[in-house]
Amino acid sequence: MTYIPISPHERDEMLATVGVQSLDELFDAIPAKQRFPKLNLPPAWTEMEALEELSNIANANENARGDLISFLGAGMYHHYIPSVVDHMLRRGEFYTAYTPYQPEISQGTLQAIFEYQSLMAALTGMDVSNASHYDGATAAAEAVTLAHVQFRGKRNRVVLSPAIHPQYRQVIRTYTQAMGVEIVGENDGLSDVRFSAEDLQALVSEETCLVIVQYPDFFGRVYDYKKFIDDAHAKGALVCVIANPTALALFKTPGEMGADIVVGDGQPLGIPMWFGGPSIGFFTTRKQYIHKMAGRLVGETVDNKGQRGYVLTLTAREQHIKRERATSNICTNQSLLALASAVYLSVLGKAGLKQVANLCYQKAHYAANELNKVKGYGVSRDVFFHEFVLECPQSASEINAHLLEHGILGGYDLGQDYPALKNHLLIAVTEMNSKEEIDALVSVLSEVKYG
Amino acid sequence: MVNALEATSPKVVEPTVFDLSSPGRVGVRMPASDVPAMEAPPPHLLRSELPLPELAEADVVRHYTRLSSFNYSVDGGFYPLGSCTMKYNPKINEDVCRLPGFLFTHPLQPIETAQGNLALMYQLQEWLKEIAGFAGVTLQPAAGAQGEFTGILMMRAYHKSRSDDKRVKMLIPDAAHGTNPASVGMMGMTVVTIPSDSRGNVDLNALEAACDDTVVGMMLTNPNTLGMFDENVEKVISLVHGCGGLMYGDGANLNALLGIVRPGDVGFDVMHFNLHKTFAVPHGGGGPGSGPVGAAEHLLDFLPDPLVGIVEEGDDETPPLYGFITPAKTIGRMKTFHGHFGGGLVRAFAYIAMQGPDGLKDIAQYAVLNANYLQAKLRDTYKIPYDRICMHEFVAEGRFEGSDVRALDISKRLMDYNFHPPTNYFPLIVPEALMIEPTETENKDTLDAFADAMIKIAEEAKTAPEVVKSAPHTTRFGRMDEVKAARELVLCCWLPEGYDLS
Q: What share of chain A is helix, strand, coil (3-state, %, to 5)?
């Protein structure tokens, strides 16, 4: 009866009002054979037991705050989350509300999402943002849908850079398997990290509806896509850039480079790693694609008292109106995490976010420089943000096992996805890593026997 | 640049963070760098300006606290939004999902260092299998709609694996949620709409006529959106199975069935759960949700990649080693990493653990009692088009003879009585629908007060219709101009240079 506030006496009164004798009688429509199964589940915990047991479960993990020094990124990053963020998220007025379908009594959520949309448009250098997708990968998959609809199915090819996060590419394939779209790029001889933008451009043709690249790419490299995008546009294709939002505080925006769609994962903006989710997918685009963009949109208006207010708008694009003619089925999104991002960006602001990005850049470059000095290790000279590829003298998995013995969570083993990079780690450094931690990484790696 | 704001200059109740910004203000300060200064990135790669607001921490807190006060919420009052299961969200779940061992674990860290998380996920998979009667469960889908998409991809893959290539039709009842046909639309399949009969069940004649060897399957919400458990569910499923189709269960309304009946036992082949409805994960103002999918034996191989499994059996002294496994004919990955772990799975795990088998049955029984009690109290005032014992929700008609008051007006007027309105205009088969789902966490006093308000509004509709039609009167904000919002499309706090409104 946990959380059920009805006494036996009230229950009987209510049953009488309904006109039945017992609770069981309410279920006569259920097939008798299968009615009231005995569920094989453990007996109920009390709140005290739940806290105790869940603490034990949580403590069975090693985490990046108490147990491990982490240099693992690859799409999910350990950043500092100002205390304010969670204090705002924990307001029941925000987290126990539903989707703001009744604007008179949902202005808190609506204005927060409107601010989120504005902040994301500002960060990416684009015209408009939607109210969110599930994560960066699903946002990228929805970009394919937009482009496919834009060309009314007349262009059926999508060019994917092999330097996009492997899991993003997997999700795009899952989403498009029944769409009649052909995906090129990742299996076209470009799976080597040294492929060039020209190689990728060679795959763009009159049949391409969308080209997707990542910025910084999966290997952490920062590349000016301006010419690449111009060339793709000359062939009539749209271009989607998957961006890291922290990097955008420092580097030229995809908007400035001419991107048509910018998506990415908003996890670095005030959302904990939480073993991978939930995070938030952002989706920004040019105004001419607003009507083809999936997901909810909040727009400004006035109420009948002459006050500025906000509503969900252009809902005619969405599933509950258009049903099978909707381009996406998205309904529930990541509203509360849009609030988290808005609070994070507001409280760090212009100066704070730049500082975070700069700390990431400085520390990652310090780490790369120091590691490059160690015999047997090599770091490429490409421009990068806060992640870089480290060539190691042994297999990446052996290196990581050695690091873990010293309490260090090593980088991402690139050999899992790129067979040519068996001895390569993707190392991420954020503002959370002190010089001392970086020096410890360098020192432990120096101990690994060369050869 | 045209500025729509200046033209009408509406009153600003709460400025935006951009309005509140003042150059030079700083919120949270970050530490100075502790490494030697590195060479800056090449200037041609740098962005010129970063147009973010500048606020002090206290400004930010007051701003969002004021915004929160503009919201109606479950913590603040009764939220009988049909098919959304707006039950109370236990506070302990907020604490446990934020334990550092959960918050600060990375999804790609070695499985040996994340055994707590993996054990929790494994256990939750097992519990959901047991609760709904399935052979396997994936926790990956982010929300109900993504769960549906997952399920339909699995159904498609199943037929394809049997070289059964002519199946293109999905049967969907007219009472279904919009996400059902939209998910099918994403697959290039055809939707065949099946009408409901006079008792709110699937029309068996129409279903029989639609069943042939081109049917992928049927998507059935049961209880349906009228709040009715389909009295012929066994016949429905045997017709669909009979033509080689698969049964998809939309688990949005599972709250009515916990410990009452297991969809897998009745013959559903695949079903999504909404952890944010049935298992008390808060709705968050529209997400994040969590939409695990359960599958029967013959669909196990098609589940998304990866699942959590036991990769090394344990014994009396050592626990098993949990890790990731890839189903043999997987449809692929639905999202990055492993699902909505912290925000969804941990909270749902805690909730189920604190209910136990008897507590789960109590939930369904009292959710159904509360709905039937409200239905009984409103029956004489509002037309109930499908009037029989309902499950966790029921649908009334929000219209009265000789009055032009509509369901929307009743909904807005309810706000004046401090209630959140029911879902309105859904399901589409009931005119002026008001879909009411009280959930099990409301007490009798609240239900009585809500019924009184509904009855009072019905009176007002006859005696003072203008009061109802111009409601709400007591809320801080009034009815919004939705036409203006859609026409002007102001979607950001400022209009970028050169933005053309036309």
A: 45, 15, 40
Which of B5, B84, B109 should we substitute to test contact with A (largest number of A Cβ atoms within 10 Å)? B109
Name the nearest CA neighbour of B4 among B498, B485, B483, B497: B485
In chain A, where the domains are located = 69-81+349-447, 84-345
The series of mean pLDDT values per 10 residues for chain A, 451 residues long, is 93 98 97 97 97 98 96 98 98 97 97 98 96 97 96 94 96 94 80 78 97 97 97 98 98 98 98 97 96 93 97 82 74 92 97 98 98 95 96 95 97 93 96 98 88 48
Q: How confident is the model at residue B187 (pLDDT cuts 50, 70, 90)?
A: confident
Is pTM, for the whole model, over 0.95? Answer: yes
Range B94-353 classified under CATH 3.90.1580.10: no
Q: Is B347 exposed, middle or buried (0-12, 13-18, 19+ CB in 10 A)?
A: buried
The pLDDT value recorded for residue B501 is: 38
Structural domain spans, chain B: 94-353, 358-475
Q: Does A144 touch chain B (CB under 8 A)?
A: no
Cβ within 8 Å, pair B372-A324? no
Asked if residues A309 and A107 have their Cβ atoms less than 8 Å apart, the reply is: yes
Give the model confidence (pLDDT) of B273-294 as tens digits. 999 999 999 999 999 999 999 9
pLDDT reading at B3 higher than 70: no
Domain A69-81+349-447 belongs to what topology?
Answer: Aspartate Aminotransferase, domain 1 (3.90.1150)
How does strand B215-221 pair with strand B246-251? parallel
pLDDT in tens, B359-370: 999 999 999 999
How near does any CA of chain A get to the CA of B422, in Å? Answer: 10
Cα distance between residue B72 and residue B419, in whole Å? 9
Return the CATH number of B358-475, one of 1.10.1510.10, 3.30.379.10, 2.60.40.4070, 3.90.1150.10.
Answer: 3.90.1150.10
- Hey, which residues 145-204 in chain A have their CB within 8 Å of chain B? 145, 165, 167-168, 170-171, 173-175, 177-180
Q: Which CATH class is domain A84-345?
A: alpha beta
- Tokens (6 digits) for B254: 């599972």
Residue to substitute from B113, B126, B129, B335, interface A, most A β-carbons within 10 A: B335
Sequence-distant (≥ 6) Cβ neighbours of residue A11 within 8 angstroms: A23, B366, B369
Q: Is B196 on the interface with A (CB under 8 A)?
A: no
